[in-house]
Amino acid sequence: MEEFVWPIRVYYEDTDAVGVVYYANYLKYMERARTEWLRSLGFEQDRVRDEEGVVFAVRRVEVDYLRTARFNEQLECRVRLVGRRRASLVFDQEVRRAGDGEVLARGQVKVACLDAEQLRPAPIPERMVREIPHVE
Known about the structure:
Elements: E1 4-9, H1 23-40, H2 45-52, E2 54-65, E3 74-85, E4 88-97, E5 103-115, H3 126-131
């Protein structure tokens, strides 16, 4: 699958007491990038919930923090789908500094498809399966 790239600017609220991006915000950046990846395929998560009766929830995250980012820097978050099963998706993600491409954080995120009412595993809707790239 091709990489999807989403631009990010570091806001003051993203930083901690020493002026670097607080570690949990990298997870927020990754979440936003996955949301935008899904949107780029034509799926709005609120509509998927209302029309298909499913939601997506993070099941597992593993992140390596390699370098720091600071206030007002331009970053980009890369998303690459590396696994697809009946009721889950696995993504490799990186947050990089825009321009020089230095990798700041690298992670793998497993997202489960859940029935919106019961919050139990549910198959990814067929309409979405057709649009989500196949992973070998």
